[in-house]
Design goal:
The chain is α+β, with helices and mostly antiparallel strands. The chain has one domain. Helices cover 23% and strands 40% of the residues. The strands form 2 sheets. It has an 8-stranded mixed β-sheet with strand order 1-10-11-12-7-6-5-4. It has a 4-stranded antiparallel β-sheet with strand order 3-2-8-9, covered by helices on one side. The longest helix is centred in the N-terminal third of the chain and has 20 residues. It starts with a helix and ends with a strand.
Length: 185
């Protein structure tokens, strides 16, 4: 239950941050070019343990509303410094979000990779619009954690596209965490 509450809290914080950032001009990458530990939006959930081994914690949360609300089940995988959340909707299971907080894992974003302890300069080179938006909000007190955002374009119904978000936590010009949400609220 603690994992569920922490995951939901992380998601809602990420979603709130996402809603603030979506009004700004950000770089956008295709959902199919985002991955962590070679796990991407289309990775079957049943292959996670084969790829990463047995999780430290695993839990399932089933919503009472079921398909009437569109979401059936939430699946939580917790590894040492990686959390993965999958959701089941209309009997299909998709990666919903991930979070890393150490350099044990690397996140692929398009044609580059980023991990904890990387310099913000790599993000500046590859995502200039997001970097500009980051600088425009940056607190002069460099000792506070700041959020660097990149949009994720997600096709839906073969015609409509909507945004997910990458949220990279920055402290003293270094990456301290990377989260992604593929389904904003």
């Amino acid at each position: 239950m603690e994992i569920l509450l922490n995951s939901l809290l992380s998601f809602f914080v990420l979603t709130a941050s996402t809603n603030l950032a979506l009004g700004q001009q950000l770089d956008t990458i295709d959902v199919y070019t985002v991955s962590v530990a070679d796990i991407d939006y289309n990775t079957p959930m049943d292959s996670i343990e084969k790829r990463l081994g047995k999780p430290m914690e695993y839990s399932v949360y089933e919503e009472e509303e079921g398909e009437a609300e569109g979401y059936d089940k939430w699946f939580y995988f917790t590894y040492n410094s990686l959390q993965l959340t999958f959701y089941e909707w209309s009997r299909e299971t998709y990666l919903f979000s991930f979070n890393i907080n150490s350099n044990q894992y690397t996140v692929k974003l398009g044609n580059m990779q980023v991990s904890v302890d990387d310099s913000i300069k790599i993000l500046q080179e590859h995502f200039p619009n997001s970097y500009h938006e980051f600088i425009s909000r940056q607190n002069p007190d460099n000792n506070q954690v700041e959020d660097f955002y990149i949009r994720i374009a997600i096709p839906y119904l073969n015609a409509i596209s909507y945004d997910g978000i990458i949220n990279i936590k920055i402290l003293e010009n270094k990456v301290i965490g990377v989260s992604a949400s593929f389904r904003p609220a």
